[in-house]
Design brief:
Layout: E1 4-13, E2 16-26, E3 31-35, H1 42-49, E4 57-62, E5 65-66, H2 71-74, E6 77-80, H3 92-102, H4 108-117, H5 131-145, E7 149-153, H6 161-178, E8 181-185, H7 189-192, E9 198-203, E10 206-212, H8 213-217, E11 221-226, H9 227-234, E12 239-245, E13 248-253, H10 262-268, E14 271-273, H11 277-285
Parallel strand pairs: 3-8, 3-9, 6-7, 7-8
Antiparallel strand pairs: 1-2, 1-4, 4-5, 9-10, 11-13, 11-14, 12-13
Helix pairs in contact: 4-5
Length: about 290
């Protein structure tokens, strides 16, 4: 069980401030969705946590130790980056062996098992792999490392639906078996929503949401039924999504679910359902 604590972190690239005084804690044994639009600061923050970048100010702590240039702290983290960082002429098998040498709990047998399940040829050079199989290669290293903390940046890039489903199942198995902290940064919000326990949303370098997913989903609700009655109920409310089919209509309303006008809903014969996480994300980051 390991914790990442980020304290007052800021980072600029020239005149662009990528991170603005961020303080956030990734707690043990939770699956986080770390969400943001392109350029919001997600990858910059993950790169600072893993010593690929250094902040202008602020600190990163792992289990009470400063993470900067600290091999003991960094060995507790495996970061699956969007980019493939291994040398082009390195073979998959050699990269697996290299990771086995660095991470004390690396499970070599499990890595080979995953390669077989995903039909990854380990004698191939990394440079010869397709985009999808490069993602599979990096995902295998991350899962097999058995580190207390796993960070994933666009983990299913280029994967077909079957392989994405396999990845999510393996991730849940690892998480359940090893009590790990998992951070998922992806644009495929609809696919990971059911996996998440916590949601962190970053916008323009600032954290705007950091709450349990159940709490986030209570920030809105979807009302559906006869079009005329739905419009009557929603008058004056903030609408973040709309769907219509004939005389049927569904609107997602940005309002605390606890503030429902239950009498009006019953009178108008309307149905209430939870919102989709992606709808809320789009609304909050526009």
């Amino acid at each position: 069980m390991s914790t990442i604590e980020i304290r007052n972190l800021s980072k600029s690239f020239g005149r662009v401030q990528a991170l603005k005084n961020i303080s956030i804690t990734f707690e043990p044994e939770k699956i986080y969705g770390f969400l943001g639009r392109n350029g919001a600061g997600k990858t910059t923050l993950l790169n600072i946590v893993t010593n690929r970048l250094f902040p202008d100010q602020g600190e990163v702590w792992v289990d009470g130790e400063l993470a900067v240039e600290n091999d003991r702290a960094q060995q507790k983290i495996f970061y699956m980056t969007e980019k493939t960082l291994h040398p082009d002429d390195m073979k998959v098998l050699d990269a697996i062996k290299l990771s086995n040498n660095f991470y004390p709990e690396f499970d070599l047998g499990y890595a080979y098992q995953l390669a077989d399940a995903f039909e990854l040829t380990i004698t191939k050079k990394i440079s010869s792999l397709s985009t999808g199989y490069k993602s599979i290669f990096k995902m295998i290293l991350t899962l097999a490392a058995n580190t207390p903390i796993m960070l994933f940046d666009e983990p299913v890039l280029g994967l077909d639906p079957n392989h994405r489903e396999m990845f999510y199942k393996e991730l849940i198995t690892c998480y359940s078996t090893n009590s790990q902290t998992v951070v998922l940064s992806t644009h495929l919000i609809g696919e990971i929503a059911d996996l998440l326990e916590e949601v962190i949303i970053i916008k323009n370098g600032e954290i705007i949401i950091a709450q349990p997913i159940d709490r986030v989903l209570q920030m809105a609700y979807t009302v559906s039924g006869a079009q005329e009655n739905v419009d009557r109920y929603a008058a004056g409310k903030r609408i973040i999504r709309e769907e219509s089919l004939g005389k049927y209509k569904a609107l997602t309303i940005y309002q605390e679910a606890g503030n429902l006008d239950k009498e009006a809903l019953i009178r108008l014969g309307l149905e209430i359902t939870p919102p989709r996480l992606q709808e809320l994300f789009v609304s909050l980051t526009n």
